Amino acid sequence: MSRAVLVTGGAGFIGSHVAAQLARRGDRVVLFDQRPPAGAAEWLLGPHADRIAFVRGDVSEWPDVLGAVREHAAGAIVHAAAIGDPAAVQHRPLLALRVNVEGSLHCLEAARLLGLGRVVLFSSIGVLPGIREEPVTASHPVICGDEGPGSGFYGASKVAVEAFAYGYRQAFGVDFAVLRPSAVYGLGMQHPIFIKPMVEDAVDGRPTRFATGRDFPRDYTHVEDVAALALLALDAPADALRDRVFYAATGRPLRTAGELAEVVRGLVPGADIEIGPGLSDADRLEVRYRGVLDISNAREQLGYAPRFGRLEDGVRQYVDEYRRYREALAARS
């Protein structure tokens, strides 16, 4: 019998793509979330329903996590559940602690008590302070003498999770890998980061307008590559992991939102996109921890090779998949 992998946040954006890739290759997936998949996630996972068991639960509730692992005999965990929007916890540190930190500890504790294989934890580039040097390696400091994580309580919660993971490995031998995604995009994405409205409005024939942001740079990373890296991190032999932290990114020079708009216009004839110059106040804070990310350790230790390293290729895939999704919705109505 194939193994079972518990995917927390499995009905969400990244989690649903991880679950789909696991099921596609033959693993049994325990989809753990507060709500069943809906919308794009439901469409994405539908073809693999026979390999997916949905469990309603909350990662911040220890009995929910332990019960799901025990009941379904999960052998490993991919932990993608979190409050993923820094603004949502900007003034609510206890919420960041309860969901992001305690939820992650519940996964690590389940692995300790039940002797699971590896726990793959999704962190964030938001753990980084202002960039000191590029390319940014996994050894770049996250706590400096004059500043901490650039994304506030969200980044602080992710730093705490990474630190606890090392503690669990040192004290109990729990095996783990941490992934720090950058600007993840693709079907089902929730946070706009310019690309969602650009692509989906263009396909649907709507205009897109942004007052500012043309100069905002990001390492836009396709969700299929992020999910593929999660599987590689799950599978890699322990002796191959000289590092435990990896960037889920393309590693290429950053692309601005203005450049992104040009890519979308080139792929969707008639795309009506206007984006003003400069940065918003929030963008000015975020851009400080955006830099070229070093993915060499993921390449060398995990065999990571992004399929959609070129933004043009990734946006084309997003456009095509969004069109297929919209056609499927229309056929059902």
TrEMBL record:
SUPFAM superfamilies in the cross-refs: NAD(P)-binding Rossmann-fold domains
Pfam families reported for this sequence: Epimerase
Domain of life: Bacteria
GO terms of molecular function: CDP-abequose epimerase activity
Keyword check for Isomerase: yes
Residues of the Ketoreductase domain: 3-190
InterPro entries: Epimerase_deHydtase, KR_dom, Lipid_A_modif_metabolic_enz, NAD(P)-bd_dom_sf, Sc_DH/Rdtase_CS
Protein name: CDP-paratose 2-epimerase
Source organism per UniProt: Aquisphaera giovannonii
